[in-house]
Amino acid sequence: MFYFIKTETFTQFLSIIMTSSSSPTMLSRFSPLLGIAIVIITSDLVISHEESGEWSCSNSNSDNRIQANFVPGVVTLDGHANDWDKIDGHEFSLLPALDPHEDDAYKGGTMTLKALHDGKDMYFLLEVDGEYVYNKGDSHKCPSVALMFQIGENASYHRMGGCEKAPDACSSKACRGHEVDIMHFSIGNAIPGRLYGGNPIDNRDGNGGDRFGHLVDVYSWNPHCRYLDGLGPAGNDSIAQNDWKGAWWHDSLNVHSDPWTVTVTGVMCVVGPKENTCGAALVVSEAGVVRGFVEEDSPYASADQKGKYYFEFSRPLRTMDRLQQDVQFAIGQSSKMAVAFWYPIGGKPWHGSAHYSINCDWVPLDITSLGTSAFTKTSSRSSWDAASAFSLLLSVLAFCLSAFIGYAVSRNKSIHFTPMDRL
């Protein structure tokens, strides 16, 4: 279960406070604002994290297991799903995280989750049915997703780790064993098809932030004790970083549809799906010019168009985390994960706890060994047929050659023996 409330503003503000803590003058300037922020955040937490009754998980799909097979060199991290076509996925209904009842399921459709690894990085694809909505600069009026993974052996899905400590008592010692790793992507400032997440500027500051697209790396002990990697009750550890990268897309988006004017070597020309007066100066695909969106193209498509959202992510199997803030994946082993989805129903901004989840408990994630490929099911028969045919051909050729040599030897019986001394 995930709880998020206005994380962009708060985490950026917290980052400023932490990085300014070494200066008493700067800290004194921020202390009144910090007090106000704590009051506001605390009041929001009390409201948004209040469950309607006793927690129950009667609809858990415990039989579902996500399988991440070894498939190298297939995925390009750009938000497009076409390179995942041969990868098997798992389809989930999306139920409210706080009260997982089927009657209140997400009306827009379902979510399909796919995963794979290439021996170095993990890759995830989320496909979610939903009409296109986008409000630049307001992530709460755009879809948002999060992945959560168990780190500590006692970390529960419910209450994001389940540590019973209050916000002023949370610490790595008091909540040891309740750590969960979270990746949260709010797309309000993210251009579709562009890459976000870990970047040199934020990683230089030693935390899991992303000031460009808000694809952040977070850890948590419970909903009230949630921090960017590297930040926490004790201050900024300055040795963490954002290890995630990702992109998003929607079916209604199209960067190839209309001709557009460019300048090539000082000459104006027009390029598009059916027209290219620029000659070979620009590479044009069958669908049009290979180009991407820029910020000025916002909102990138007309609102309310039907289709699917695609969220694509990657992260190294192992990270350099030394603070128990990142899950560590291992080939041949399993992890536990959860997925959350926020959507502005009826155009109304979503709030932190009003999200949907694929299950009301952890879902196992199996990371297969290098000897297993996702393409085995679809290609094993054709590969076997090709190998069998090739072996049969070699056998026939060898038999024919042996027969020819035997026949040639049997015909030539007039060979006379010549002693060596007569040569």
TrEMBL record:
SMART domains in alphabetical order: EB_dh
InterPro entries: Cyt-c552/DMSO_Rdtase_haem-bd (IPR019020)
Molecular function as annotated in GO: heme binding; metal ion binding
Membrane-spanning parts: 389-410
Domain Cytochrome c-552/DMSO reductase-like haem-binding: 81-357
Coiled coil: none
Domain of life: Eukaryota
Keywords tagged on the record: Electron transport, Heme, Iron, Membrane, Metal-binding, Transmembrane, Transmembrane helix, Transport
Protein name per its UniProtKB record: Cytochrome c-552/DMSO reductase-like haem-binding domain-containing protein
